[in-house]
What we know:
The chain is of the alpha/beta class and 285 residues long. The protein has eight helices and 13 strands. The strands form two sheets. A seven-stranded mixed beta sheet has the order 1-2-3-4-5-6-7.
Amino acid sequence: MQEIGEGIYYEDSFPGVTLGALxxxxxxxxxxxxxxxxxxxxxxxxxxNQYGWSNRFLVSLxxxxxxxxxxxxxxxxxVTHQETAExxxxxxxxxxxxxxxxxxxxxxxNEVIGMRWVVPGITFNQRISLHWNSSEIxxxxxxxxxAESIWVILPEEQVVFVGDTVVLNQPPFLxxxxxxxxxxxxxLLMKSYQNYVIICGRGGPVKMEDMHELRKFLRNVMRRMxxxxxxxxxxxxTEKMVPSLLSKFSFPSLYKTKYxxxxxxxxxxxxxxxYFPYDALDQSV
Length: 285
């Protein structure tokens, strides 16, 4: 665990998303879950050794399988946005995996097939706060990457966990994104949280230039899609955008296939939902 403030940690050694843990005298708040059951148990053991295992909440920052498949193994009260709970309601009880490749981390671990979803215990629509000692923990709705994305904000400690609103050294997930709102949320983050430690959902701490680059990337995607739709281009043509867009990111070569698939799938679905929404209803995951 990497400490970023008194009792505030992030963990990025497990496959899947970057995790968070907030320790207070009256309880613990865990942010997201490891992807695999064995990793969730290991993470749970680390937390138990650090603090104990009573009075705990686990916040899921959105509904993506990479951060939600391991929720059950954490044995905690789950807190999510209401729309995350609705996504769960629409899924089969047992995770069967998808036939299409989305460039997600779970696709590289066969052991996650057959895992059961957990039902959130607490949901909210816009904002909810926990008050433990003098510290306030705010869970707040910030859509963009998905309709249900939330942030965990610690105003006194000036720390914010933003999930997939920002990702580092990899292309973002676009399949369920509202690009305009996403850009607005990035601008809010840069303006109102510039003195905060910002922890993203895939990569850990981010700098101001990371957010600028992501905003630039999203605007570029929007411009290119506008040109395509003006030419009445079909969604399949979004695949041609992938090489130049992928070149904007620096990452080890072994991830190229995964990130190529992520952009191919994400661009196709995003274009469908923006310009052919009725065709996209049964295809988005």
